[in-house]
Design brief:
The complex is a heterotrimer of chains A (237), B (435) and C (273). Chain B is 63% helix and 7% strand. Chain B is built from 16 helices and 5 strands. Chain C has 273 residues and is α/β, with parallel strands linked by helices. Chain C has 10 helices and 10 strands. In chain C, helix 3 packs across helix 4, helix 3 packs parallel to helix 6 and helix 6 runs parallel beside helix 7. The N terminus of chain C is likely disordered. The chains are: A mainly alpha (237), B mainly alpha (435), C alpha/beta (273).
């Protein structure tokens, strides 16, 4: 990316960090996809494997942290190099948390699957999950190529995710209100939806970092937020 | 030299390398041997030269004297007193007293020719010894005193063994009769060998035993003084100007080239210049240290200028920049920093130049400092000669006794140069600063 | 005076306007230097602010030292060196005929790459400047000036008991501090430093960097350095030179985190080209 350093091992260091981020990203993507699939296909057989695989993510993030600190100590990076390394650290942190949420989704899915024979509103979950997966995929591509425009596209779409989340929140509340048997599965679903929305937020965070690497400052507009779930309530009449 | 292939060529290459190494060491040893032998040869020749000169000069430093009883007859002495009654001058026929003493030693000598031969035993400077004794202590008038009288040069040579007694009389410079008288004096223990103070106390003389270096020494000193006073300031200032202040253009280059050429001009040309300009045109006195000094100064100037410029150039630019950075003007940079640091080199150049000048004779020949001058010069305008000139003149003198004196003169000249060198090195060390 | 009178580069990239308090100490306009036929500097416009450290960085031969030497007219003594353009210090054109170069160099001091104390005693080294400029009227005053300078240079503690020993007997770092003391003894306004630490070990370098920070309050400092880390550490403003051109200049923080010019970016990141 960009012109080469005179000291080639510096280039190697930076490339290595990028690879680690890419691996971390791939893993997080996988975890998320597996968790969503388990929920949609009502298949609990992979859930233990998902939980176990999270440890790999944590380890990888730890290694990346160490590597990044080494590079800073040795190379005294300036300007774009400095931004890249700091961003790699932050992105790794974000990806690790995405992995954590994916693990959490998987765990909660087990409860949902065991308590609900049918969930008619899976479609909404599928939609929000799909959107978010797309965001992650796109933002990882943007990171690999340094494409700030692609990143900002992801940034814009977070609003859709938020809106979706708000409507799911309301739906589930109504469903619980209509049938109190659904409260266990329903409350877990609320959490799952929230997790997915948070994953979207982290993907957006990564997009902001990508923008920062390229331009040296963060996007000046405030992030458009459309999540009104915190102020959502239903009439209980 | 990287190892290309695997072990295949190694033993061959190693052997070749070992051979080359041995050759290199041999070459080094040979080179060192050449260097050593060159040094040894040079020092050997120098040592030989020095030893032979010193050896030949030894006889000149002592002189044989005869102690006689001389009667100072009061009535024949004229005493001059000053206002306070102190004796200022005594005047008498000292020669007569001396001759009387001689006749008294050998009463049997009566004929005029014999008496003349008897008188020849002593140096013509003998009466002066008596006069000096009486002048020193006027109370001696009227008494018979023992005076040490210098013997003639030939007798002195006989005593030193440089005239062979065993040669037949016709080949000898000294007759048998003179030898007989001498032997009698020796038997009476009246003959002594003393340090030849005349060598340093007297000016030049026709008589070898009376000839001394005092005049030449003074002349050399005065001439050197004039040379130093003229060439040092002029040379240093010219060099400072050329090196530090002159614009680097064609004119400066031409001046530099000409100065370098001046150093190669034969010295006699400077003498001719001195004759034509200083003596004929400016009407300065001939044979004077002033003119000699001026001529030698012209000769020394290029040496000093070149040495000073080299010294100035060797002062590191960092010092100049530091001084300029603090706001020193160009003159301050030169005076406060560059010159003091360049002093050791400048003084070295001056020593070399002066040492060369001290040994110069050809130019001084032209301005008349090769004349026979008896009196010691008192100032830079009085007539004088210089040491190398004096040595040359003595070397040309046929008298036997002058041989040793010539070598003695050389020894004195070399000592003089060593002294000047030593002084200058002392001053250089005092100025030397580490940076 | 409104903003048209301050130079355009003062309008910063973050949109902030420079305030009137940031007074310009040295203003250079269109500075060009030729060594014979070769041009070393191409039209440099750079403002140096008072009581700030301005760092000049760039690869070897880029003209930063040449530019520095223009400010105290040390280039005057180099044969065949021609200056063009204008340099004003406190509003005065220093290349005008009325300026006395000697007096200028007392106002604008210089510290060189290799420590070059005079081969004199420590005392005489520091006292030389005041002496030739007649700044002290008595021996006591001179002693006081010497002590003050040595204190300000952080050297007093180490040498106060051996002021009359040779300056060359000190270590490299101490010698450089002695040179700094010598420079500030004549009470300059501006101190120019040409790679002052390149001949020193890291600890001596750190001591001098600390000293530069302390001196900033009283002097305007312009420092040429090969080390970008040093420029980042000590300066408030940085100017990047390349092949005799001023490529970029601005606040040090911005230059080193987000330079505007690709060339600057490449240089400070250690990239080819």
């Amino acid at each position: 990316m960009g012109s080469e350093h005179i000291v080639s091992s510096f280039d190697n260091d930076l490339a290595e960090l990028n690879h680690m981020v890419a691996r971390l990203g791939g893993l997080a993507e996988q975890q998320f996809a597996a968790a969503v699939e388990a929920l949609e296909t009502r298949n609990t057989s992979n859930i233990d494997a998902i939980v176990e695989a999270d440890k790999q993510l944590d380890k990888l993030e730890f290694e990346l942290n160490e590597r990044a600190i080494e590079v800073i100590a040795r190379r005294s990076p300036m300007a774009k190099d400095l931004r890249r390394i700091i961003v790699a650290l932050r992105v790794a942190g974000n990806l690790e948390r995405i992995g954590d949420y994916a693990k959490n989704i998987a765990k909660r899915s087990r409860v949902i699957i065991e308590h609900e024979k049918s969930l008619g509103d899976n479609v909404s979950i599928a939609r929000i999950a799909g959107l978010t997966q797309q965001m992650i995929n796109q933002v990882l591509d943007a990171y690999a190529t340094g494409d700030a425009e692609l990143a900002m596209d992801v940034w814009d779409r977070d609003m859709d995710v938020d809106q979706l989340h708000t409507s799911i929140f309301r739906e589930v509340l109504e469903q619980i209100g209509a049938d109190s048997e659904r409260v266990s599965a329903g409350s877990q679903l609320l959490f799952v939806a929230k997790n997915i929305e948070r994953i979207g937020d982290y993907a957006t965070g990564i997009a902001e970092q990508i923008y920062f690497v390229k331009h040296g400052e963060f996007p000046s507009q405030t992030r458009p937020k459309a999540d009104d779930s915190s102020s959502s309530a239903i009439d209980q009449s | 030299m990287t190892d290309r292939g695997p072990q295949k060529n190694d033993p061959i290459r190693a052997a070749r390398q070992a051979q080359r190494l041995k050759k290199r060491y041999r070459k080094e040893r040979r080179f060192r041997a050449f260097g050593m032998s060159a040094v040894l040869l040079a020092t050997g020749i120098l040592a030989f030269l020095m030893t032979s000169i010193v050896y030949t000069s030894i006889p000149a430093f002592t002189h044989h004297n005869l102690t006689l009883d001389v009667t100072i007859i009061a009535e024949e002495v004229d005493i001059l007193r000053d206002d306070q009654g102190l004796v200022t001058n005594v005047d008498a026929n000292w020669l007569g007293f001396v001759r009387t003493a001689l006749r008294d030693s050998f009463p049997e000598v009566t004929s005029r020719r014999d008496k003349r031969d008897l008188y020849k035993l002593l140096s013509i400077g003998a009466p002066d010894a008596v006069r000096d004794a009486v002048q020193a202590d006027p109370n001696l008038i009227g008494q018979t005193i023992q005076v040490r009288l210098p013997l003639s040069d030939d007798i002195d040579l006989v005593m030193k063994g440089l005239i062979d007694r065993n040669l037949p009389e016709t080949d000898r410079l000294v007759s048998d009769r003179e030898l007989a008288w001498l032997d009698k004096f020796i038997a009476e223990q009246r003959v002594s060998e003393n340090f030849a103070i005349q060598l340093f106390a007297n000016g030049d003389s026709r008589e070898p035993e009376m000839a001394g270096l005092k005049g030449a020494l003074m002349g050399s000193l005065l001439t050197m003084l004039v040379t130093l006073l003229i060439s040092f300031p002029l040379g240093v200032l010219a060099a400072v100007y050329l090196q530090e202040m002159a614009p680097k253009n064609r004119l400066t280059q031409i001046i530099e080239v000409n100065i370098n050429n001046l150093a190669a001009v034969p010295s006699i040309v400077f003498g001719l210049l001195g004759l034509a300009v200083f003596i004929s045109f400016f009407q300065l006195p001939r044979s004077a240290p002033l003119v000699g000094g001026m001529v030698l100064a012209l000769m020394t100037l290029p040496t000093i200028i070149i040495a000073t410029r080299a010294s100035l150039a060797s002062v590191p630019p960092s010092i100049r920049q530091a001084a300029m950075g603090v706001g020193a003007s160009r003159l301050q940079v030169i005076m406060h920093h560059v010159l003091p640091l360049a002093m050791p080199g400048i003084l070295t150049g001056t020593i070399i130049g002066l040492a060369q000048a001290a040994g110069e004779t050809a130019p001084l020949l032209m301005i008349g400092m090769m004349a026979f001058i008896v009196d010691t010069p008192t100032d830079v305008t009085s007539k004088a000669t210089v040491l190398p000139a004096q040595i040359y003149m003595w070397a040309n003198n046929p008298e036997r006794a002058f041989v040793a004196r010539t070598s003695a003169g050389i020894v004195v000249l070399l000592s003089f140069l060593l002294l000047v060198n030593g002084l200058a090195i002392y001053f250089r060390k005092r100025f030397e600063k580490r940076w | 005076m409104g903003w048209p009178f301050t130079s355009a580069n003062v309008l910063r990239k973050d949109g902030k306007m420079s305030s009137q308090e940031e007074n310009i100490k040295i203003r250079t306009s269109g500075v060009t230097v030729h060594y014979g036929a070769a041009q070393a500097l191409h039209g440099i416009d750079l403002d140096i602010r008072a009581n700030e450290v301005t760092a000049l960085i760039g690869p070897s031969g880029c003209g930063k030292s040449t530019f520095l030497r223009c400010i105290n007219r040390m280039n005057d003594v180099i044969e065949d060196c021609h200056f063009g353009g204008k340099i004003e210090i406190d509003g005065e054109d220093i290349y005008s005929g009325e300026i006395d170069v000697v007096e200028l160099r007392a106002r604008v001091g210089m510290v060189f790459q290799k420590p070059n104390p005079f081969p004199k005693s420590i005392y005489d080294n520091v006292a030389y400047g005041p002496r030739i400029h007649g700044l002290a009227s008595s021996k006591d005053e001179l002693d006081h000036m010497v002590e003050t300078s040595l204190r300000r240079a952080g050297l007093w503690q180490e040498v106060h008991d051996r002021l009359h020993t040779s300056g060359s007997g000190l270590s490299g770092g101490q010698q450089q501090r002695l040179c700094i003391a010598r420079t500030i003894a004549v009470d300059p306004n501006v101190v120019l430093m040409d790679e002052p630490c390149s001949a020193l070990d890291p600890i001596a370098t750190a001591i001098i960097e600390e000293l530069i920070e302390e001196l900033r309050s009283q002097y305007t400092i312009v420092i040429v350095t090969h080390s970008m880390q040093q420029a980042a550490r000590v300066s408030q403003r940085t100017a990047y030179f390349h092949l005799g051109h001023l490529v970029e200049h601005g606040d040090t923080d911005r230059i080193f985190t987000n330079p505007a010019n690709k060339q600057t970016e490449a240089y400070i990141s250690g990239k080819i080209g």
